[in-house]
């Protein structure tokens, strides 16, 4: 929270969420549960995406954050839940705390919750569609000459298969994409060398 040190007045609050953009989900997976009535007009929800400097190693690098009204996102989340569940004929009721105030203390309940949420999906903001344009924008960013969305597809495909031939095929496909890109940099060459090493090691294991 940002506080006026002279008066002690809270100017506004910020809910910060981090997002590792190369996670296989391809979207932020956090849950945002704050009830709308606990959000002041100026409060913000901020998503800070990050990636490793060398994609698979190195220090974290921050990408462009997403900033939106905290109350708007909380209201949108509830609207989406009620609309989507209602259309499916499911229980769409939401429990909200009563007599809530801005910036409640830790002893006061300030979260909304669904009456029927066996899958634990209530609060999954990314599933509401409210950040879809932003997620798409992040996916269009290039790193080492390859779109972030393509990196995600690659790592996801590797994690979902144990077939040697398929993994080798996907490694070769990524190498080809990097080699054919127009971007030239020292990091690009380093990563190509790492991919070559991975390919050689995988062949050794497969033939072992």
Could you explain the architecture of this structure?
With 208 residues, the protein is of the alpha+beta class. The protein folds into 2 domains: 2-139, no CATH class; 142-207. Helices cover 38% and strands 17% of the residues. The strands form 4 sheets. Strands 3, 4, 5 and 6 form a 4-stranded mixed beta sheet that branches. The chain is globular and about 65 Å long. The chain starts with a strand and ends with a helix.
Radius of gyration: 22 Å
Mean of pLDDT: 82
- What is the helix/strand order? EEEEEEHEEHEEHHH
Task: Give the uncertain stretches in residue-range form.
Answer: none
The beta-strand count equals: 10
**What is the helix tally?**
5
Q: Beta fraction of the residues? A: 15-25%
Tell me the major beta sheet.
4 strands, mixed
Shape verdict? globular
Helix content: 25-40%
User: Termini distance?
Assistant: 57 Å
Number of domains: 2
Judged by helices, strands and strand pairing, the structural class is: alpha+beta
In short:
The chain is built from 5 helices and 10 strands, in the order E-E-E-E-E-E-H-E-E-H-E-E-H-H-H.
List the helices and strands and how they pair.
Blueprint: E1 2-3, E2 10-12, E3 14-20, E4 44-52, E5 60-62, E6 66-69, H1 70-87, E7 94-95, E8 113-114, H2 132-140, E9 142-143, E10 146-147, H3 148-159, H4 164-180, H5 186-207
Parallel strand pairs: 3-4
Antiparallel strand pairs: 1-2, 4-5, 4-6, 7-8, 9-10
């Amino acid at each position: 929270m940002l506080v006026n040190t002279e008066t002690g007045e809270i100017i506004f609050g910020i809910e910060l969420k981090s997002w590792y953009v190369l996670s296989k989900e391809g979207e932020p997976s956090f849950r945002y549960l704050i009830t709308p009535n606990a959000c002041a007009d100026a409060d913000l929800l901020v998503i800070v995406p990050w990636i490793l400097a060398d994609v698979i190693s190195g220090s974290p690098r921050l990408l462009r954050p997403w900033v939106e009204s905290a109350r708007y996102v909380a209201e949108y989340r509830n609207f989406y839940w009620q609309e989507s569940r209602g259309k499916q004929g499911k229980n769409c009721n939401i429990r909200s705390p009563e007599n809530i105030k801005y910036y409640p203390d830790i002893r006061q309940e300030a979260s909304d919750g669904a009456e029927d949420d066996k899958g634990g999906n209530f609060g999954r903001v990314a599933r509401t569609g409210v950040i879809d344009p932003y997620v798409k924008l992040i996916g269009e960013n290039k790193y080492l000459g390859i779109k972030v969305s393509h990196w995600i597809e690659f790592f996801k495909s590797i994690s979902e298969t144990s077939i040697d031939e398929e993994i080798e095929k996907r490694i070769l496909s990524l190498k080809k994409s990097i080699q054919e890109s127009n971007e030239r940099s020292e990091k690009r060459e380093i990563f190509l060398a790492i991919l070559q090493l991975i390919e050689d090691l995988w062949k050794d294991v497969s033939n072992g």
